[in-house]
C-alpha cells in the first residue's frame, strides 16, 4: 500500500509538472510587420536537416537550412546555415519538417547563432498572402518607425500620428486576422502612419489610421 501511495504521489507530481511546462509558452499576438521589424533575421528557407543538441534540460534542436532569400539581417549575418530552437514545444520550440516545405522564418541572433520560437513569426511559405510577401520585400520596412497598437475592445483611438490601430483581436487572435494578412502600417510622405492595403497604391488622402 505504501509503495502504491508513493507511486501515486510521484505520478501526480509528474503530471502537474508536465501541465505546468505545457502551459509555460504564452505569446502576445504580434502583427507580421512588427515581427519583421523586431527580428534580427528574416529569411525564406527550406529545412534540409536537423540534429538534437545536448543543451539545457530538454535539449536544443538545430535545423540545417538552405537559405532561399534574406529579407532582413544582411549586415548581421548575410547567410544563415543553422536555425536553433528549443527542442520542447512547451518551451516555445518550433517544429519544422525536413525536405518538405519552404518556410518564412524570423529570429534573433545570440552569440553568432540564429534562434527562433513559437513567439516569433514563422510560416510555410505557400500559406503567406500576396500582401505579406510584398510586405517582406519592401512595405514592412517602410513601417518600422510606425507603431502598431493592438485593440482588444472598442472604442480604440490612435494617440499619435505614428500609430495604426490593429483590430484583428476583436474577432481573431494574432497574425491570422484580416489586417495581419492584407495590410501594412507605413509612414506617408506627410509624416503620419496609416494602414496600406497591399493590392492598391497608397492613398495619400487617408488620414484615419483607425479605419483600414
TrEMBL record:
Location of this chain's protein in the cell: Secreted, Extracellular space, Extracellular matrix
Signal peptide as annotated in the record: 1-16
Cystines in this chain: 25-92, 27-119, 37-144, 146-193, 151-156, 164-185
Record has Repeat as a keyword: no
Domain NTR: 25-144
Family, per entry: Belongs to the protease inhibitor I35 (TIMP) family.
UniProt GO MF annotations: metal ion binding; metalloendopeptidase inhibitor activity; protease binding
Matches recorded under CDD domains: NTR_TIMP
Entry keywords, A to Z: Disulfide bond, Extracellular matrix, Metal-binding, Metalloenzyme inhibitor, Metalloprotease inhibitor, Protease inhibitor, Secreted, Signal, Zinc
Annotated positions binding Zn(2+): 25
Gene name linked to the record: Timp3
Pfam families listed in its UniProt record: TIMP (PF00965)
A cellular-component GO term for this protein: extracellular space
One example of a Gene Ontology biological process annotation: response to cytokine
Protein name: Metalloproteinase inhibitor 3
Disulfide bond among keywords: yes
Record Gene3D superfamilies: 2.40.50.120, Tissue inhibitor of metalloproteinase-1. Chain B, domain 1 (3.90.370.10)
Amino acid at each position: 500500500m505504501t509503495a502504491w501511495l508513493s507511486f501515486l504521489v510521484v505520478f501526480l507530481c509528474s503530471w502537474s509538472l508536465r501541465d505546468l511546462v505545457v502551459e509555460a509558452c504564452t505569446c502576445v499576438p504580434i502583427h507580421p510587420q512588427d515581427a519583421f521589424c523586431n527580428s534580427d533575421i528574416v529569411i525564406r528557407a527550406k529545412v534540409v536537416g536537423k540534429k538534437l543538441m545536448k543543451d539545457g534540460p530538454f535539449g536544443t534542436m538545430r535545423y540545417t537550412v538552405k537559405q532561399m532569400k534574406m529579407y532582413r539581417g544582411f549586415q548581421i549575418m548575410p547567410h544563415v546555415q543553422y536555425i536553433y530552437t528549443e527542442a520542447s514545444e512547451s518551451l516555445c520550440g518550433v517544429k519544422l519538417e525536413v525536405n518538405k516545405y519552404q518556410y518564412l522564418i524570423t529570429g534573433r541572433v545570440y552569440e553568432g547563432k540564429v534562434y527562433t520560437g513559437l513567439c516569433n513569426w514563422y510560416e510555410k511559405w505557400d500559406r503567406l498572402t500576396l500582401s505579406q510577401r510584398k510586405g517582406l520585400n519592401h512595405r514592412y520596412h517602410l513601417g518600422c518607425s510606425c507603431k502598431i497598437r493592438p485593440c482588444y475592445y472598442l472604442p480604440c483611438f490612435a494617440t499619435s500620428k505614428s500609430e495604426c490601430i490593429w483590430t484583428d483581436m476583436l474577432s481573431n487572435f494574432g497574425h491570422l486576422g484580416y489586417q495581419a494578412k492584407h495590410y501594412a502600417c507605413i509612414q506617408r510622405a506627410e509624416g503620419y502612419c496609416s494602414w496600406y492595403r497591399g493590392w492598391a497604391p497608397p492613398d495619400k488622402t487617408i488620414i484615419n489610421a483607425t479605419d483600414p
